[in-house]
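Box 3.1 A note on notation
Throughout this textbook, protein chains are presented in two layers. The first layer is the amino acid sequence; the second is a token string describing backbone geometry. Keep the layers aligned when reading.
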Amino acid sequence: MLFLKIFSILDDMRDISLDREANRLSKKQLLESWDLTKSSELYGIETWGAGYFNVSPDGEVTISASTNSHKNTPVPIVDIIEGIKERGLEPPILLRIENLLDNQITMLNESFQRAIKTLEYKGDYRGVFPIKVNQQEQVIDEITMFGRRYHHGLEAGSKAELIAALAMLEDPEACLICNGYKDAEFIDLALNALKIGYSCFLVIERPGELELILERAAQLHVDPRIGVRLKLSSKVGGNWSESGGDRSIFGLTTSQLIDVVDRLKETGQLPCLQLLHYHLGSQIPNIRDIRQGVLEASRFYADLVSEGAPMGYFDLGGGLAVDYDGSQTNYVHSKNYSLDEYTSDVIEVVLSVLDETGVPHPTIITESGRSTVAYYSVLIVNVLDSAQFKPKPQIIPEPDDSMPEQIINLLQISTDLTVKNIQECFNDAIFYRDEIRQRFRLGQISLRERSMGESIFLKTIEQIARTAKSMKRKMPGLDGLDEALSDVYYANFSIFQSLPDSWAIDQVFPIMPIHRLKEEPTRHAVVADITCDCDGVIDRFVDLHDEKKTLLLHELRSNEEYYLGFFLVGAYQETLGDLHNLFGDTNVVSVRLEPDGTFSIVKEIEGDSIADVLSYVEYDPKKLLSQYRKRAEQAVRHQMITPKERMLMVKNFEESLRGYTYFENHR
């Protein structure tokens, strides 16, 4: 009995010890478990989201249109997408949130108004939106609607854009800026706009335009409102540095500017010169470059007034940047200033130069396009599949003499690996992997042996990666481990159609899952589109400190959609998209967020059908159908198919012509 009692006591002690250990492990796991904060930090949503985009307690990305005066309950994007799908539209979907456009226009204008009041500036501010940044009718319609209370105008750089502007802009106090190369028809449109009450400026880009403007103005019996675009010597950093400087394509040199002034004096029409314009770039990341450009241009403005030109309008062009990576630095995809800092600096520099010379304060114009519409649009795509680069789930064999020497050496690396020799093991693994491939090409290693070697290599790299993560100090020589093991996630979209800047100029956009953010993402991945093009892949992602080559994503689940959001895509992407592989425009849905956390679908635009995109490249869909009918009828005559099969095949062909150009799950 004594022994039994002792064993019972020992069992109880063991149970208590196990319970304590379980509790300790449970607490440790709880402390180390994934949470929403880690998801927010991983994807940087709190830094680039500008308060519009956040993560909900349910692990879903939400949109909020709250301002200082209006509070909105955040709306999960997943809820919006499910609502759109219930109405019959499938991903990919370009989601436009009209509240965000309203907010951006409001913040820009009110920030300038605060700076004007604080610094006691005597002029006004007028914003204009460059149509080229997003030419879609719905976008321009909403900009003119939301901007009317601030007399927010438009900028046109072509005849087509000018015609759109003349039809859409109804506010006579809003400025209409005409840039770009101009023929007589363009000039007549602008001059006629003046006659019916538009505040329209013809900006001279090249010397020869002046004579044509004066000639057409005389014919139409109207005094033109003339602006001049100046080539500044100032240049900025970033992708658009060539927009400024002596070698910039657009604008007048100092000598050409003087020629314009002298010619206007000769004709007695110097009073028509009322605006000075310059443009240093679409995305200027450094506030010092902005100040330098304003300073130089202000000197030109003051001297034009001293030449006798009345002036009155000072157009600083675009450049107000978007912080795509959230780093708040002067990196090319970021900016090191706030909106209020930008507006205050602009007003302060203009004021200081003109007060020094005694020149009256002009109406300041900016052409902020990118910052106005970038947040407004989000591209939502569903992931169709993934390719994972990982070893086969098989037992790694023991080395034996029948194996090629390179495979034996690869197996030995796993045994020899330590923290101290991790760099050497990494280099050796790559060397032996390449040797195996070379010997396979020479016929010295079989297909099965190569497959075994590739699997052992991936297993070895996984082991090296785990060891590297446990090290306190990051070894620079191990860069590329994540890329070597990264998956390819195939998403239902075309980079060339929906994110052309990602392909063309290496622009990075914030990309992240819009749900499952309570779960830890475990797969390093790059994102590929569904075009048949090796350039159709995104392998550069935003990061606070640099750019990442891979994006952490969740494991895909069978029979469950996995959605990615591409954010801040409202500027240029819709306009520049092309028809690579004949993937057309995506479905577009505009929504209005309501204060109570619901949403209203304002407008639905179905994406291009296959017939649409074929007609864009000069095919006649009716002719294609007729030719297919004939081919199918020939097959009936040759007894290859039955008449009933022909009927079904032709019906399928017709339905496909009417169908979406992207992958559809309903079949």
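Confidence is low (pLDDT under 50) at residues 1-10, 13-31. The longest strand covers residues 377-387.
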